[in-house]
Amino acid sequence: MGNCCCPSDDKGFQEQEPDERSSLIGNHPGSSNSPRLVPRSERTPGASRSDSFPSPQNHASQRGDEQSALNRILHQTASNVIDVAAIDARSMEQHEYLDKARQYSSKLTMLCNKTPIPSRPHSLPSGVGNPHAILSAPPLSQADIQFITQVADRTAQTLKEIKVKHKEDLVVPFGVP
Amino acid sequence: MSLVEGLYAIIITDRDGVPVFKVSTENAPELALRPTFLSTFGMATDQASKLGLSKNKSMISTYSAFQVVHLNKLPLIVTMVASSKTNTGMLLALERDFDNVLKDMRAVVDIS
């Protein structure tokens, strides 16, 4: 009636575009005049006759499709909901637990007998027990490295200079009469 | 286990906490080896996967004396219990070694 809050009641406007007030689910009691959002599968020329004269089978199948779609949406939403308090903290029976453990153990034994256990490739020498402990230790200081280098050089030099000085005979006769 | 210093226990279970494979030292806390503790990760990882950050792969719980690393390899769950001073990166790096073994172990818990 001209009020911006009222929907238009202009009966001269026969076909209305679907808006926020149009019913998404058909066969609503108040939706007799409002347009129904027709699923794509029904928008075929052959379906025009069923639209104007809906048969009971089509009506039932449409309800079934809508119901299954609703159920699917419901299940999907329920699976996405995070509800920590509703976690089913079911505790297993003792005998059930033991049965399962025994079953797993026997299956695992069969599996181990079938497939050999692969050996781990050794990438480091066996003398290195804890490589990460050694590598993560703080590095040596430059002064230490220089000292070690100098001592090693001096040792090598000294070894080269070692000479045998012949002072007396090797074989010494004793004065045995 | 000797590869990582401070690793006390490795337990491979199904999502109910029933152990498929378990190895532990005497330093491992006994309570952390029980099915009631081990099964909590199965529920937590399902809920954590709904946070919009894609599928949850692992969880690390640190305590004052211990740390527990869970790996989601459903239908199997790998739990490692170690000292709080253990290198956590080394524990996570063990996942690659587990993958080769778990490929065959999945058949143990799969319901045929």
Automatic annotation (TrEMBL), chain A:
<dbReference type="GO" id="GO:0043410">
    <property type="term" value="P:positive regulation of MAPK cascade"/>
</dbReference>
<dbReference type="GO" id="GO:0016197">
    <property type="term" value="P:endosomal transport"/>
</dbReference>
<dbReference type="GO" id="GO:0007040">
    <property type="term" value="P:lysosome organization"/>
</dbReference>
<keyword id="KW-0967">Endosome</keyword>
<protein>
    <recommendedName>
        <fullName>Ragulator complex protein LAMTOR1</fullName>
    </recommendedName>
</protein>
<dbReference type="GO" id="GO:0001919">
    <property type="term" value="P:regulation of receptor recycling"/>
</dbReference>
<feature type="compositionally biased region" description="Basic and acidic residues">
    <location>
        <begin position="8"/>
        <end position="22"/>
    </location>
</feature>
<dbReference type="GO" id="GO:0005765">
    <property type="term" value="C:lysosomal membrane"/>
</dbReference>
<keyword id="KW-0449">Lipoprotein</keyword>
<keyword id="KW-0519">Myristate</keyword>
<dbReference type="GO" id="GO:0071986">
    <property type="term" value="C:Ragulator complex"/>
</dbReference>
<keyword id="KW-0564">Palmitate</keyword>
<dbReference type="InterPro" id="IPR028209">
    <property type="entry name" value="LAMTOR1/MEH1"/>
</dbReference>
<keyword id="KW-0458">Lysosome</keyword>
<dbReference type="GO" id="GO:0071230">
    <property type="term" value="P:cellular response to amino acid stimulus"/>
</dbReference>
<dbReference type="Pfam" id="PF15454">
    <property type="entry name" value="LAMTOR"/>
</dbReference>
<dbReference type="GO" id="GO:0045121">
    <property type="term" value="C:membrane raft"/>
</dbReference>
<keyword id="KW-0472">Membrane</keyword>
<dbReference type="GO" id="GO:0031902">
    <property type="term" value="C:late endosome membrane"/>
</dbReference>
<dbReference type="GO" id="GO:0032008">
    <property type="term" value="P:positive regulation of TOR signaling"/>
</dbReference>
<comment type="similarity">
    <text>Belongs to the LAMTOR1 family.</text>
</comment>
<feature type="compositionally biased region" description="Polar residues">
    <location>
        <begin position="47"/>
        <end position="61"/>
    </location>
</feature>
TrEMBL record, chain B:
<dbReference type="InterPro" id="IPR015019">
    <property type="entry name" value="LAMTOR3"/>
</dbReference>
<dbReference type="GO" id="GO:0071986">
    <property type="term" value="C:Ragulator complex"/>
</dbReference>
<dbReference type="GO" id="GO:0071230">
    <property type="term" value="P:cellular response to amino acid stimulus"/>
</dbReference>
<dbReference type="GO" id="GO:0032008">
    <property type="term" value="P:positive regulation of TOR signaling"/>
</dbReference>
<comment type="similarity">
    <text>Belongs to the LAMTOR3 family.</text>
</comment>
<dbReference type="Pfam" id="PF08923">
    <property type="entry name" value="MAPKK1_Int"/>
</dbReference>
<protein>
    <submittedName>
        <fullName>Ragulator complex protein LAMTOR3-A isoform X4</fullName>
    </submittedName>
</protein>
